[in-house]
UniProtKB/TrEMBL annotation, chain A:
Keywords: ATP-binding, Biotin, Ligase, Lipid degradation, Lipid metabolism, Magnesium, Manganese, Metal-binding, Nucleotide-binding
Domain Biotin carboxylation stretches: 1-447
Protein name: propionyl-CoA carboxylase
Catalytically driven reaction(s): propanoyl-CoA + hydrogencarbonate + ATP = (S)-methylmalonyl-CoA + ADP + phosphate + H(+)
Lineage: Bacteria, Pseudomonadati, Pseudomonadota, Alphaproteobacteria, Iodidimonadales
SMART domains tied to this protein: Biotin_carb_C
Residue ranges of every copy of the ATP-grasp domain listed in the record: 120-317
Residues annotated as domain Lipoyl-binding: 586-661
Cofactor: biotin
PANTHER family tied to this protein: CARBOXYLASE:PYRUVATE/ACETYL-COA/PROPIONYL-COA CARBOXYLASE, METHYLCROTONOYL-COA CARBOXYLASE SUBUNIT ALPHA, MITOCHONDRIAL-RELATED
From TrEMBL, chain B:
Gene (name only): pccB
Residue stretches making up the CoA carboxyltransferase N-terminal domain: 1-257
Domain of life per record: Bacteria
Name recorded for this polypeptide: Propionyl-CoA carboxylase beta chain
Domain (CoA carboxyltransferase C-terminal): residue spans on this chain: 264-500
Pfam entry (one): Carboxyl_trans
Coiled coil stretches, renumbered: none
Amino acid sequence: MFEKILIANRGEIACRIIKTAKRMGIRTVAVYSDADADALHVEMADEHVHIGEAPAAQSYLLADKIIKAAKDTGAQAIHPGFGFLSENAKFVEAVEAAGLVFIGPTIHAISAMGDKIESKRLAQKAGVSTVPGYIGEIADDDEAVKIAADIGYPVMIKASAGGGGKGMRIAWDEEECREGFLSARSEARSSFGDERIFIEKYIVEPRHIEIQILGDSQGTVLYLGERECSIQRRHQKVIEEAPSPFIDEATRKAMGEQAVALSKAVDYRSAGTVEFIVDKDRNFYFLEMNTRLQVEHPVTEMITGLDLVEQMIKVAAGQPLGMTQEDIRLTGWAIESRIYAEDPYRNFLPSIGRLTRYRPPAETGSVRNDTGVFEGAEISMYYDPMIAKLATWGETREAALAEMRTSLDQFYIRGIAHNIPFLGAVMAHPRFAEGRLSTNFIAEEYPDGFEGGVMTPEIELAMRAAACFIHAVETSRDSQMPGRIASVAAVQSREWIIHLDDSHVSARIYPSQGGATLVMGGKSFELASDWTPGKTVFSGTIDGRPVTLELDRLNMGYQLSTSGVSKTVTVLPPHVDRLMTHMPEKVEADTSKFLLCPMPGLVVAINVTEGDEVKAGQALAVVEAMKMENILRAERDGTVSAIKAGVGDSLAVDQVILEFE
Amino acid sequence: MKEILKELEDRRAQARLGGGQKRIDAQHARGKLTARERIEVLLDEGSFEEMDMFVTHRCTDFGMEKMSYPGDGVVTGSGTINGRLVYVFSQDFTVFGGSLSETHAQKICKVMDMAMRVGAPVIGLNDSGGARIQEGVASLAGYADVFQRNVLASGVVPQISVIMGPCAGGAVYSPAMTDMIFMVKDSSYMFVTGPDVVKTVTNEVVTQEELGGAITHNTKSAVADKAFENDVEALMQTRRMFDFLSLNNREAAPVRPSFDGADRVELSLDSVVPSNPNKPYDMHEVIEKIVDEGDFFELQPLHARNMIIGLARMEGQTVGIVANQPMVLAGCLDIDSSKKAARFVRFCDCFNIPILTLVDVPGFLPGTAQEHGGIIKHGAKLLFAFGEATVPKITVITRKAYGGAYDVMSSKHLRGDMNYAWPTAEIAVMGAKGAVEIIYRAERDDADKIAERTKAYESHFANPFVAASKGFIDEVIMPHSTRKRICRSLQVLKTKSLENPWKKHDNIPL
């Protein structure tokens, strides 16, 4: 076994690999860029080597520097993590040439699977099902119909020179196929001067399901079940789970065996993933093979009990897996949420800055948080915005999901925008709970972007009850002020009006040992919570049902959040609540008349003057944040009426730069 | 007998109606509460004891003898906020527009006298059109009587003004002399002369809101200390603020039960000061992580934002916080920030509130605007205020403490009780580059040499240890243990005894 390994990565995956290495008694070497000098992975490793400037191309992608760091520190092997150099065959060559061991597959496997066409060819040869399709010149619509009939409807027809989904036509029958073919061909001719047409099976309600495989140098290849990663936003996976709620035992076996066959075809060793697209009838088709550890590997670990990093290190050291397919048992269910530093309410715009608060839920046997950050860490613009992976396990999918919802509610992050409200909303979505997933889930369920989760009677009750409990704790503390001339009415003798979303509900609360009885709306509820002032998360139970809410104090009441639903709740005595009706409704300022600073930064340039007419998309100002110049553009046509900031001003988020007429 | 008792009830009912239902409705339509409703929100339920409910004016000119309302446009009395005594007057806009008559003023004076006698704060809820013109000089005399009491009460009992409607002309000078002014957005304004007079005299066209609205006085003029969205919010927040205050100058600041451990460690404070000395950080984060439960009642948050002032608690004990804000103007001292902090320091000293000063100051802001504006005298106010304060004074230098600004910011030399520095502190006469260019004037044109000298200067002074070696810093502390250190010091300093020499009063450079 190795005595020391180098981890050629950063962030949560570097930390995760270090953890396993430590457990195995292997010393670790971290590499880091300028931006990561104070990063968690650097602190966790036994040794660390600086390898360059912040941009990845000048640090984490520098094969020579990383190999030199390994040689200099006496590391015997390199774990690449994922991303960066993990699927770079040249890097593996260089590692091996330097006399070091690459903790991953062979050069041959990496290059074969790295080539889209080659990997498909190999897959077909190994008997793996691929998406039926045809690419080339097609004489006429009759031939197109014939091809489509061979493939089976529905089919997708497009000009092969057209990129992405451009000019894509879906045909469900012969007639649509003729039409589609003719228009695609004319477009191919006129737009691209290339008559080749691409016809492929159109996958209805596609799901992304992948098989984790594990091989050793002795020729054993096993499959560790599947992961479903259908919840994606713009091809970026957001939520993954294992097993898939869609796959039955027979399909699992078929997919697993095909994945193993493909892996054996390239003498695969180490951990790898064979990705499939699965249609609504459980037909599955090979997409690609990833010759590395996947981001979402924790869900597989949680249901198999295996540590994939440990297996990779053992295999790299030449040890056999020592297991057979029969030893692989899938127990329970695991779900993973990727926590991204991005603002779901602002079209998932990346968010950078200091994590002023970072309090993940406590890790337990069923909650795992792979993290690369800590409270006070800086989220830089240089790398992937993923800051943590929260995974939960349960006996059933339902249990894992409940655990995930609670854990997300406990996850308290401030200082940067993050996607926890979005994750919470998806987890609370009935369609997700039913397991009716598809890669179009987000596009279908949030067609106009994310505007918050859905309020339910349970959430409303939880918010009112928690607000009342919190208020009772605070009120009884207030009644203990020193220097009183009069006693203050006890909490239990008072009536409260709990106001949420224009609805006022009368309540009384009777504190008891470790909790309270809440009488609200003619019903009685038993509350239990250890909440005390200053806690930013309210955890407790209502009639035994667990409730977790994020809490922020406001001048009037509390901001409570769960499952992507965030509400202001006020708790007032009746005589004050009654007076609230006289308080004027303050209309929120119409921000469309302003150009607001989207991030804290320094004004580098104002490109317009007062009275200028501007067109949508025109550059208005440049704000420098984190050494990055951000060009702010007009969202619509208009006339600049006032300039409120000058070059050199340092602005806060939402500070006004320009006003429009 | 019954009828006699009933007459009291009838008279009370009539008094409670103020200027009548129609005017009450009009007040509500403006988004404002009535004088009595405001008192109900401000005080503990049922705690209000009214005084002078049946006082009426004595004016007989201009037909005033035919118009009389019991109470005469102001509701006065005492009550409690979380059980603690407070005197209150609340002007009733429904009666003669809340205008101040001789008797109206006498009612205010009476509660102020009572408050002084027993040592309880006074809260004034202002909603008045101004002087009762029909009464002429008698009304002016009434104002002056109130002013005189404001002066005498200053520094004896806390005085808080909540402006909840108009407050114009001479009337502004009563709130102006109180310790704190809160305003309600969109419905309150304060000015010496209104927009009409301004237009006649100077031809300036300006709205009430721009001239003296809540935002104007909270950002530009600094007349007000905080702005709130509506009456209820303003009053609820006044309650919150009241809990921080001692009741008078003879009492210690209150200690409320705390749920936050004194030994709470905040590891993230170790990374709050960026490695690049020119990069700002938010001092609010430091404050919120040090104080109890992250609960900080900031004052003047919109004015002179390069200085943060406000009230918080440590182990339940009220403290006043004065902190440079590196996010704005690099946290430098200038005219506005010096004045803002100076008055707050004196407020804390008056009412036995210990002062915690967080320092990251690169110096005074240079420029003709500052010099011609009198930064010398205004800066001196802050120096004076810290120097004369005898309450416990704890200082933490987080980063820069340069030049005269180092001395000013509650330094050891101004009788600081415990002066801490983080390891990131730099205590020096000025920044390294400027210092080197003076010390090594002859080498000024040799960039390499200057760079070398700058490095040497930095390594010598860009740390807290030179100051610590001279005893100007009592202890260099880890940022993460700042709360623990301050809590301990506050406990130690509970028995602090320090008096200034007897004097009639000092002569602070006003």
